[in-house]
Amino acid sequence: MKQHVELRNHSVELHKFRMRLTISAGFVLVLFLLLYARFYFLQVVQQEHYHTLAEANRISIAPLVPYRGLISDRNGRILAQNYSAYTLEVVPSKIQDLETTLNELAAIIEITSTDRQRFKKLLKESKRFKSLPIRHRLTEVEIATFAANRYRFPGIEIRAQVYRQYPEKEMVSHVVGYISRINDHDLEQLESNGELHNYRGSHHIGKIGIEQSYEKQLHGITGFEEVETDAAGRSIRVLSRTPPTPGNNLILTLDLGLQEVAEMAFGDRRGALVALDPNNGEVLAFVSKPGYDNNLFIGGIDQENWNLLNNSIDRPLNNRALRGVYPPGSTFKPFMALAALELGKRTAEYSMSDPGYFSLPGVSRRYRDWKPGGHGRVDLHKSLVVSCDTYYYSLANDLGIDNIHNFISQFGLGRKTGIDIEGEVSGLLPSSAWKMRQHKQKWYAGDTISVSIGQGYNLTTPLQLAFATMIIANNGKAYLPHLVKQIQNSQTGEIEDIPAKLLYSLNLKPQNLEVVKSALVDVTRPGGTAAKAGANADYTFAGKTGTSQVVGIKQGERYNEKLINERHRDHAMFIAYAPAENPMIALAILVENTGTGGSTAAPIARQVFDYFLLGKLPETDLAHLTDPIKNHVHDHL
Amino acid sequence: MIEIRKIWHYLTRYIDNFLLTGILILMVIGLIVLYSATGGNITRVSNQVINILIALVIMWLVANIPLQQIMRLALPMYMLGLILLIGVAFFGEINNGARRWLSLGVTRIQPSELMKIALPLMMAWYFDKHEITLRLRDYLGATILLLLPVLLILRQPDLGTALLIAASGFYVLFLAGLSWRIIIGLGTAAAASLPVLWSVMHDYQRQRIMTLLDPTQDPLGAGYHTIQSSIAIGSGGVVGKGWQNGTQTQLDFLPEQSTDFIFAVFSEEFGLIGNTVLLLLYLLVIGRCIAITANASTQFTRLISGSITLTFCTYIFVNMGMVSGILPIVGVPLPLMSYGGTSMVTMLLGFGILMSIQTHPKLVKT
After folding, report:
1. Do A243 and A380 lie in a common domain?
2. Residue ranges of the Penicillin-binding protein dimerisation domain (chain A) (predicted)?
3. Contacts A43 to B, Cβ<8 Å
4. B221 vs A197: CB contact, 8 Å cut-off?
């Protein structure tokens, strides 16, 4: 290709250049006119808007914090609400001598040393020109007193504040959670989510529970206003206002009446109860005892109360239902039984002779049944009704841990359920792969034996057990457990239902389910381990007791409850659903360090079912339905 | 007597008096407003006077350099700037999350500042060299010269400075005759890529953009300065509140008042009338610069003076636009008025070049 080289004509080039220069100049002129138009707009057209009423006044921008959404149970009983009160706030940068001023202030308004401590702490953490509260919840008398003396205290103002309140306190604190002051970590989080602009002027944010997991719904949208203020910072008039959008209200799936009955049934004992609706996964009750008063955390918990809660041996801050991991004990057996039938390792007719122990072939060690001498001839039905251990030792050996793991993990054990509050743990359903990963050892046949009766490496949370129970109750449907039933739009009042979410379905043979489920019904009938709890019920309910070991007993020794330190005693457990033919409620109960599943946990389920199905309220004495602690003797491994 | 006259002549020989007068008036106005903006802080004002004097000296020095010398400095300055930028990329001090400074024992330097003048010089020199046989690929070459420092600065990261330097380079390209088709083509391509960019952005990045475009979205955070300065300007009205009487700005004591947002103080205190006078003064200075550009005799001098002039306009427009709320906040000072030594020196260095172009005997190019 021929290269075509042009020699530029000098004067043409100069002309072109001048053209471009002129165009640029014109462009500059246009831009300056644009600027001028903007100035004109601000300084002439908007004159009214920006003109202040007095020379010394100025216009400041203030955020308008939105009204936080309310939380109620499914029947409208309030679990979290707001109320207005007045605080006394100080702007440190406007005060010469803080100490003296505070002393003078304390002479007319009550300021405790706790108040001062809290204030000093805030002072350290905040910028000096921020307004910081020194006293909350002023009484009317205090407001009047201060107003009369206000001229003496420039830089100190009364502010109206909206407070959060949790009327039910300990009863639902593990579900509702709490809001508390925004800290640096929260700020970072907000910034990286692009949410920081919505929190200007807000002091609080959800930290745990529903208050945290639904923060976005509850918080709303911050507004702002332009205010003319005088030299002392008092608001004279509002120039413009973009109102905030209040947060949405949440209606939970919880039935507070049911929760109350469960709490009463527990009495002073520690433990957890999770009740689900097996038709849609709604959480009807979520108990973790002991609870704590979440109101204490809102303003930042004081040292004394914190120590009490944190150091208490009862661990009230632990959400046992969500995060407590316990060996499931004999409540594990129904899942083993289903595994046996579905995997073809046992039939319903097969029976074995139970001498009271089991040994692996060629090994002398005996794994004992809880009943000395054994239960005689046992088939699958009987093994569940009387909770025979030997049947399951033998079964476990035939199934092998990996079959057990793969089948039973379908019921959600060893995995998080995905419930809509944070902090859930996955527990542990062991497998040979797990043991190799975790302990770098291979799996021993003896390990399987203890897993089969819900001990050994086996660990579940009460929530997981309830979830697994639900799946049996509704014949194989795994619904996502959720705590929020409806969301109400705060502006329109419209209520949006949160639909049930079916995570997956298990394909279980109906005849196998029938065998297991009818056995579970017989557990609560005479001859079953929960017969006492099931006596005279006006409906049929199905369940399985469990007694989960906390401390191992040496070979040959006997478990003597009285001799063991209370906190080393076995846990009592019970899973159940009712009515058996068409379940409306499925639950899992754990009572720490006391009694057996049948004597202690099952009666609680009975009271809960009585209330839920019949509306029957427990008599006040019923909390002590259990037999007094006799010299219970168990033979354990 | 003759001595004084000789000294005077020596001093002002290469100074363009018109331009100098305009510059001085603006600087003095700047000092007056600075006094008010800092709440009567004499120390700050005196520091600024020192900044001004240093910058004036540098301007004088540059104005005295003959054109050929300036041209000869273009390439070495550019190379030096590039090397220093690369040095910053590897050894730079990290300050506020960005690497911009290079420590050289006694002093610290910010190479991107050097680039502000080195890049247009280099590109102007480049186009001058290829003046006779200008082809499309020469524009490509110039673009590469532009991109090298811009990308390095973007990496620091310093988006604002990178954009300004890119602009000054673009002005050279434009005045050198970059085809309209290419300009329009690039513009359309950029516009078309915006929706694609939007869709791949993170939530928080989108929120930042939204706040830039509408400061009322985050009125107490990112949008605060914009809203406050708009209020300040508006409250000045037509006649302003009077010197030192700007209540919006007096009671805030924000440090930015003396630097990027000085125009807000000016507007509040001197009103629309003051703004009109200020704009006219800037326009007069710009006008003189354009005249100098039009009369420049070589490709090199035309291009460099054009770039300096247009860059000066850019700073003014961007700063006033951001302060009055029609542009997002980008941290650009108001030339000749904002407090700060570096920008003063950079500006006056540019003006020195303009003066040199204007006052040295013009070479007649064949």
Report:
1. no
2. 65-238
3. 233-234, 236-238, 267, 271-272, 275
4. yes
Which chain A residue is nearest to residue B203, measuring alpha carbons? A194
The CATH number covering residue A332 comes to 3.40.710.10
Write the CB contacts of A316 (distance below 8 Å, at least 6 apart in sequence): A170, A290, A291, A292, A309
Question: Which residues are paired to A558 by β-bridges?
Answer: A635
Q: Residue A189 half-sphere exposure, CB side, CA atoms within 13 Å?
A: 12
- The phi-psi region of residue A549 (left if phi > 0; otherwise alpha if psi is between -120 and 50; otherwise beta) is beta
What the block records as the tokens of B130 is: 């290829």
Asked if the bond preceding A462 is cis, omega within 30° of 0, the reply is no
Cβ neighbours around B167 below 10 Å, total: 17
For A161-192, how does the pLDDT look when each residue is reduced to its tens digit (9 = 90+)? Answer: 788 999 999 999 999 999 998 888 898 889 88
Distance from the A86 Cα atom to the nearest Cα atom in chain B, whole angstroms? 23
Q: Which residues pair with A585 in a beta bridge?
A: A578
pLDDT tens digit sequence for A186-215: 988 898 888 888 898 888 999 999 999 999
Identify whether A608 is part of a domain.
Answer: yes
Q: Spell out the alpha helix ranges (H) of A485-582.
A: 510-523, 531-534
Number of domains composing chain A: 2
A93 part of a folded domain:
yes
What CA–CA distance (Å, rounded) separates A479 from A502?
A: 4
Whether residue A307 sits in one domain with residue A222? no
Residue A213 to residue A420: CA distance in whole angstroms: 7
Q: What is the mean pLDDT of chain B?
A: 85
Tokens 């594990």 appear where? A332
Nearest CA to B321 among A104, A28, A183?
A28
Q: How far is Cα of residue A501 from the mean position of the Cα atoms in its chain?
A: 19
- CATH number for position A207: 3.90.1310.10
**Alpha helices by DSSP H, B237-298:** 247-250, 262-295
Domain that holds residue A179: 60-146+156-252
Verify that A486 and A626 share a domain, yes or no: yes
Same domain, A421 and A377: yes
